[in-house]
Design goal:
Elements (H helix, E strand, L loop, with lengths): L17 H11 L3 H12 L8 H15 L2
Length: about 70
């Protein structure tokens, strides 16, 4: 059976895990997205993906919004 295709972007609702997750990300200094990516990478025995391209695009969008 082949790999299940996952979308590049998903919505995550932590429910009752929001409090414990918030304390963890405060301690690690990670963003919620980075925290979830790291945990999934560890679970899948893969390196944490670099999101540099995504960050550049987000910064550009934010910069464009500020100049309007």
């Amino acid at each position: 059976m082949g790999d299940l295709m996952m979308p590049d972007r998903i919505t995550f609702r932590p429910g009752k895990l929001a409090g414990p997750m918030g304390r963890k990300i405060k301690a690690t200094g990670e963003t919620p997205s980075a925290y979830v990516r790291r945990l999934i990478a560890e679970d899948c025995d893969k390196p944490v993906p670099k999101m540099d391209g995504h960050l550049k695009a987000i910064k550009k969008v934010n910069r464009d919004r500020k100049s309007q």
